Amino acid sequence: MTAKPNLESIPRGAAPATRESASRPTLVPPTRPLPDDHVERNPGTPLDLDFVRSIRVNRSAVERRSATIPTRRTVKKEWQAAWLLRAITLIDLTTLSGDDTPGNVRRLCAKARHPLRDDVAESLGVGELGIKVGAVCVYHSLVKTAVAALDGSGIPVAAVSTGFPAGLSPIKQRIEEIHASVADGAKEIDIVITRAHVLTGNYEALYDEVRRFREACGDAHMKAILATGELATLGNVARASMVAMQAGADFIKTSTGKEGVNATIPFGLVMDRMIREYFEQTGYAVGFKPAGGIRTAKTALEFLFLMKEELGDRWLKPDLFRFGASSLLTDIERQLEHFTTGRYAAAHRHPMP
Amino acid sequence: MTMTTVAEIFETMEYGPAPESDKEALAWLAKHERVFGHFIDGTWTEPGTVFDVINPATSAVIARVTDGTKTDVDAAVAAARAALPAWKALTPHARARHIYAIARGVQKHSRLLAVLESMDNGKSIRETRDIDIPLVARHFYHHAGWAQLIESEFPGYEAIGVVGQIIPWNFPLLMLAWKIAPALAGGNTIVLKPAEFTPLTALAFAEIVQEAGLPAGVINIVNGHGETGAAIVNHPDVDKIAFTGSTEVGRIIRKATAGSGKKLSLELGGKSPFIVYDDADLDSVVEGVVDAIWFNQGQVCCAGSRLLVQEGVADRLVQKLRARMEKLRLGSPLDKAVDMGAIVAPVQLERIRELVQQGVTEGATMWQPSWACPTEGCFYPPTLFTDVQPSSTIAQVEIFGPVLVTMTFRTPEESVAIANNTPYGLAASVWTESINLALDIAPKIKAGVVWINSTNLFDAAAGFGGYRESGFGREGGREGMYEYVKREVRRGKRDGGTSKRAVPTRNTQRASLPSIDRTPKLFIGGKQARPDSGYTRRVYSPSGELVGEAPEGNRKDVRNAVEAAHAAAGKWARSTGHNRAQILYYIAENLSVRAEELASRIDAMTGGGLRRARQEVDASVSRLFTYAAWADKYDGAVHSVPIRGVAIAMNEPIGVMGLACPDELPLLGMISLVAPAIAAGNTTIVVPSEAHPLAATDFYGVLETSDLPDGVVNIVTGDKNALAKVLAEHDAVDAVWYFGAREGVTMVELASASNMKRTWASWHDRDWLDANDGEGREFLRAATHVKNIWVPYGE
């Protein structure tokens, strides 16, 4: 194996000691219980290329498991309502269009503060809970608008960054973009990786890139978008997930929403398994964000089942799980209204985001 | 509204109840006043003596079903017999329409069937809804196709007749479909007995059949216990028995039908290995294990119940498994969000408990998840054993419950050794990311089904069935159809010689010099061997003249021959078809060189005349050519199964075969058995014609000059039935063919029950000189079994 030039940039204080690459990591229970609110940030680890290259993913088996996650689990009545409410709090309410303006972003932020009609919330007996979304996600140029519109709500603004969606602009500009978004008030940065590093097996370069993004983020939490639909194989998705976590990602995220295939259960399953693996190896909990194509309450529930089954209840909270979505919220509102009235609901009776 | 509020659940994110409604199923039961007679000749009989049908999840009696008597069985068989001519006479297309209508009917009533099955058996509604019932419909669709194609795809074959079918309780309706669909497609009529624990979906199915307009008497359903099953098995007017269930009962059926002429297919128990190599995707392996042993509460004949893990990854896999087991949900089978339902009956639950206790007593480490198992109803939690050795009881016996035993291995070779260290041979799973390893291991495992990186995949297009004591016969695919058709036999004159044929007196003048004594011996392991007994028997011509002497083989000679055959078996089975063809051609060549000598010998023994004897030798040479030709052409198939992948149906040699040859045509009769057996890759112990053994002892001289590896053909002359009995009883012999008297057939079939070896035994006349009667695919099918290897792919 070649030298690891990136090791110098690891913040030594937080990272666990380098393992002997010859021995496979053994399962160890996390050294500390996860706190209820905010998990300790993942500081990353040295790049463990031997481990990354030993990762095996059997696609057919992953697809079989994925196919039964929605069929083995379901929630009905109060349980479904409660789970959908939880789903709302996990949404990164997103607009990422070329024609975004301050006007539609302010409208989105207003919906983020107040995602559910008061009468529906009251009927569900959750008026007191102050349900709001997890974050609002926009392009850099609209971060300031969103920060202002969400002032006092406690809802963070997430910025897509680093030459989103393709991530092919010069590294210097990509890092500057992170700095600029953080300076404008973004608390979360969704970076995109260079797919070529994965497709060519250049994991050192991938690690180095993500590591530098992570440093640029500073206190802002970093979600690493893998663009799974462009990584060709589930094995690549797994290896990219592991490298991104070793490089210090707070979240790993499936997609920009611009790829041909976006968030699917098989991608989610593979990424969840890597999160579990990393957690068992290091004790650091990394979050997961499926994004793109999640439009229905049913799909949202399927991802919640996936998280609960593969990672546990702790991954059903906004510090470890988010949906990247826009129209999902309206479908959830309709389902919740149906639960309270017994009548099927219409989208136009819910304020649009 | 329950007391649990939305706000509370919002915090806990627990699962709640998600019941599937049983309303329609209860209404269906109520419509029948919860009491059922049998379904015979298209109508429902009046209920007789009834027994309770119990929902194992609630212990509630949900229906009462009539216990079938011998009279009921007689009526059902009579109805099936009466319906047979018209059903057979229908055009293939008409039968296809009927089967198609059944498939549609199953789909139309799919949810009723799913709920009823869950209530009756205790399995989860997810499984009945997503697996059992769709597979039932699929099976009928697939076999509607075989019905349509039967004449073009099975030329020269016809229906067997009235078939008796006895099915188990673990997949009640699916097993019914596996039995009934191919039987109908083949043109047979049916008497089926469901398991006493789970009779209800078969009765709902009978209604579907009625609605679909199937002619009366084609399908008859008689409920009852073991005695009812025995009445079907022993019924003289039943032509075939198909049974799925325990090896213990399979053995009883084998004995009961011995010598009856009934065709038999048995799908029995298993202790299937689930083999994990250190390069497998372990997270996917964990889900595979869930599907292997916690599917249907482990009450699956092909359940991957022995987890064999490469030592270096064993601890890690066990930890992952335990974590996964904590997440399994067990509860009401009608809850849509449970992974596991109820065990079928208290007696079964008790057996599981006893075996688990025995495992603990024997020193294995038992682990169960921390969550509480329901105490009401018949439930048992998923259970994982470690520190298990192949010698442990729980590693050997079929538990038929959600209990997994784990063992480790060091090398691929050792994994195969442990996997095959069982009397069973139903299925296996092989997990590795290396295609080289997977496709190397799959043929080495003694099992009828091998799943690569997957488990418990079933489809109507792929044959399912066992090796060894897991039974014989296949269900599904072309190989399954052969279980429900038989070769049409032209009833014509026999042309073979017999020992009883009167012969003209011949000139027996010898040359003036005394001939040099020839001492025929046994032929074992490529060497001529004197018989253990030290005796020889004199061989006379029909007119009473001494022709020569043959060694008197005994059980020890058979034992030695079997050992020689075993020593040769692996290498011969692995040899290429081309290589086996070369040797068969060479045998033919050398036989033809000695044709005149053999013809004289045959003539001397049988007195059939030299012309006829020459004809026999010529036919023998031709027969050897036939199987030399076949040796590299008896291809398997790639089945079209509904996955991204292939199911490879490989024709594998059965192993070590005992061949008791017909008395007539002493050379051709023997070669007609030996040639297909060795062409297919088996090694053999041949018991030649008892009356005319010297053709065989001459023949080993041919073998010795033909490059045949030692031990592939072993010849033991002597008392045919006594020797055949030793072979049929021998637990290391995998198959026995017997052509001779009916009492010998009965004896062989009875004795074969010791290890449930495959038998092909017939007392019927066979025209060995005829190419239809004496050679071909029928022989090759009997010399092989089909292994289906499922290979999903995709990166």
Q: Can you give a write-up of this model?
A:
The complex is a heterodimer of chains A (353) and B (795). With 353 residues, chain A is an alpha/beta fold. Chain A has one domain: TIM Barrel. Chain A is built from 13 helices and eight strands. Chain A has an eight-stranded parallel beta sheet with strand order 7-6-5-4-3-2-1-8. In chain A, helix 3 crosses helix 12, helix 9 (203-217) packs across helix 10 and helix 10 (234-246) runs parallel beside helix 11 (265-282). Mean pLDDT of chain A is 92; it is low at 1-30. Chain B has 795 residues and is an alpha/beta fold. Chain B has three domains: 20-268, Aldehyde Dehydrogenase, Chain A, domain 1, CATH 3.40.605.10; 272-465, Aldehyde Dehydrogenase, Chain A, domain 2; 522-792, Aldehyde Dehydrogenase, Chain A, domain 1, CATH 3.40.605.10. In chain B, 42% of the residues lie in helices and 18% in strands. Chain B contains 27 helices and 32 strands. In chain B, strands 14-15-16-13-12-17-18-32-26-25 form a ten-stranded mixed beta sheet, sandwiched between helices. Chain B has a six-stranded mixed beta sheet with strand order 9-8-7-10-11-19, with helices on both faces. In chain B, strands 29-28-27-30-31 form a five-stranded parallel beta sheet, sandwiched between helices. In chain B, helix 5 runs antiparallel to helix 8 (200-212) and helix 20 (595-606) packs antiparallel against helix 23 (694-704). The longest helix of chain B has 29 residues, at 125-153. The chains are: A alpha/beta (353), B alpha/beta (795). The interface between A and B is large, with 42 and 45 residues.
